[in-house]
Amino acid sequence: MHVIDMGHDVYKANDKVAEKNKKKLDKYQVFSVNVMGAIGSGKTTLIEEAIRQLKDKYNIAVIAGDVVAEMDSSRFKKLDVPTIPVNTGKECHLDAKLVEKALDEIDLSNTDLLFIENVGNLICPVDFKLGEHLRVVIVSVTEGDDIILKHPMIFKTSDLAVINKVDIAHAVDVDAEKMRDDILSLKPNVPVILTSKHDWESLETWISFIELGVKEAQNR
Amino acid sequence: MHELSIACEIFEQVMATAKEHGATEVKHVTLQMGRLSHTNPEQLSFCFNVLANESIAKDADLIVEMIPPSLECECGYTGAVDEKKIRENCKFESELLAYAAVMECPVCGKPAQLTGGRELIIKSIEIETENQD
């Protein structure tokens, strides 16, 4: 019997590809946003709103991850932005290799902002970096106000947290402020934005946060 | 499924290393898993066994060693978390929540960066070869 030392870190193998993706994006001064969140939290809608407001100022592209269908990517295509649908087939998350492949199909020299919409899931995307500059987690009040403490690591590892659909919090008996407090108890100082697609001011906060990142990327 | 893709990666790496060393059988695969990684050891074992069913690793045992979280602080401290202190100070009863909440540096008490506890490492494999020298 022989013991062979391997020391192969499965997640680090993904991280290495993610680093490569990030370097490539940096080279073209592209600001990339990994949008994570549960099914139905409003990821697609919030990305659409940002595209509508920013597409005249910046060149935007989208990688739209989904298990099988292409509903989300067709919504982005309607907004006239280059969109690469990525079907994971059986996987519950995007990984760096899938993004690496998708990046080959994007004209990065003509891109300022890249949205990567992850598969709807609060668990698996946590372990897989993609090469993003900003990790965003979006939850909605309809998921219940215990959703945050049920999925701590996605909040712990995100750079921005969005609580969406706050206009219907009362109807679903949820306290959005409790959700904000729970996020801050896991990660103090993380920016938390409360949004509703029916409240323009809240969308403006979300969009200006993204625009700030684009401007920083262009000054790098 | 998360565990299936991870198990595929482990299986491919294990088989490549086993082949490289002229293995006739893989007896054990030892993994190190961070306590904060979102991987389930039982599901991972199940997926690995399904994948290895018709290979020289079909009877391999997947041994999982759990790795506790570790920290890095701006004061210069790097090392393990003070588990007892975290549990005493944290309002959360769940272990994962306690770890995921702010982790304080055991030396200066400031919130510190999590540096370990999320990894998944194929540490070693134990193999049989034809030449038992």
Describe the structure.
The complex is a heterodimer of chains A (220) and B (133). Chain A is α/β, with parallel strands linked by helices and 220 residues long. Chain A has a single domain (6-218), classed as P-loop containing nucleotide triphosphate hydrolases (Rossmann fold), CATH 3.40.50.300. Chain A has helices at residues 10-27, 43-54, 71-78, 96-103, 147-150, 152-156, 176-186, 200-218, and strands spanning 2-9, 31-37, 60-66, 83-87, 113-117, 134-140, 160-164, 192-194. Chain A has a seven-stranded parallel beta sheet, with helices on both faces. In chain A, α1 (10-27) packs parallel to α4 and α2 crosses α8 (200-218). The longest helix of chain A has 19 residues, at 200-218. Chain B has two domains: 1-67 and 116-132, hypothetical protein PF0899 fold; 68-113, no CATH class. Chain B contains four helices and six strands; from the N terminus they run αβαβββααββ. Chain B has helices at residues 2-20, 41-52, 83-89, 95-100, and strands at 23-34, 61-67, 70-72, 78-80, 113-116, 120-129. A three-stranded mixed beta sheet of chain B has the order 2-1-6, covered by helices on one side. In chain B, strands 4-3-5 form a three-stranded antiparallel beta sheet, with no helix packed on it. In chain B, α1 crosses α2 (41-52). The radius of gyration of chain B is 19 Å and the shape is elongated. The N and C termini of chain B lie far apart (41 Å). The mean pLDDT of chain B is 88. Chain A binds chain B through residues 1-13, 90-93, 95, 123-124, 126-127, 149, 152-153, 155-156, 185-188, and chain B through 1-2, 4-6, 9-10, 13-14, 17-18, 21, 23, 27, 36-39, 91-92, 96-97, 100-102, 111, 114, 118-129. β1 (2-9) of chain A pairs antiparallel with β6 of chain B, so a sheet runs across the interface. Chain A: It comes from Methanosarcina barkeri MS. Chain A: Belongs to the SIMIBI class G3E GTPase family. HypB/HupM subfamily. Chain A: Keywords: GTP-binding, Hydrolase, Metal-binding, Nickel, Nucleotide-binding, Zinc.
